[in-house]
Amino acid sequence: MKVLHDIKNPVQALLSVINDIQLKPEDMRRLANADLEDINEMLENLKTEFKSRHNMDFKEDERLVNTQEFIELISRSHIRLAANGNNSFEIATDDLIPDEIKIRKITVARICNNLISNALKHTNDGKVTVTLKVANIEDLTDK
């Protein structure tokens, strides 16, 4: 059921694009394509979840991901969903964020989407800001 919850955001964003009669056709096409990319990513997540739950030898490896592209992937559907709830949404970064990060993309995307979705769901007429910072390893370990 978690995956169904995850896929709901890009589907709702796509529906908002389709129903927005004020959009120019080229903007509608661009936004719809972005939402379809998000849905495709979620379907990949579903496949991964299925393989993982059914012991089908799936292990997500860490890989280098372009930081800006990952931020855009996470934020695309949430920006429009925030506007539907009369909210604003942004992802902020500090100056130390590298161009590429090594992460388990599907897992990290799922966590981010769940946190942002829940924050937006429980915020009305407000602002949700996610800030990405580079952590100092010494600050994260017990001394």
Describe the protein in words.
This protein is an alpha+beta fold. It has a single domain, classed as Heat Shock Protein 90. It is 60% helix and 14% strand. It has a two-stranded antiparallel sheet.
Structural topology:
Blueprint: H1 2-19, H2 25-53, E1 63-66, H3 67-84, E2 88-93, E3 100-103, H4 105-121, E4 127-132, H5 137-140
Parallel strand pairs: 2-4
Antiparallel strand pairs: 1-3
Helix pairs in contact: 1-2, 1-3, 3-4
**Mean of residue pLDDT values:** 79
Helix content: 55-70%
Number of domains as seen in the coordinates: 1
Q: In one word, what is the shape?
A: globular
- Oligomeric state, counting identical vs distinct chains: single chain
Q: In terms of per-residue confidence, which ranges show pLDDT below 50 for 5 or more consecutive residues?
A: none
Number of strands: 4
Number of helices: 5
Task: Report the order of strands and helices.
Answer: HHEHEEHEH
Which CATH first-tier class would you pick? Alpha Beta
Structural category = alpha+beta
Q: What is the radius of gyration? A: 17 Å
CATH fold call: Heat Shock Protein 90
Instruction: Report the span from N to C terminus.
Output: 40 Å
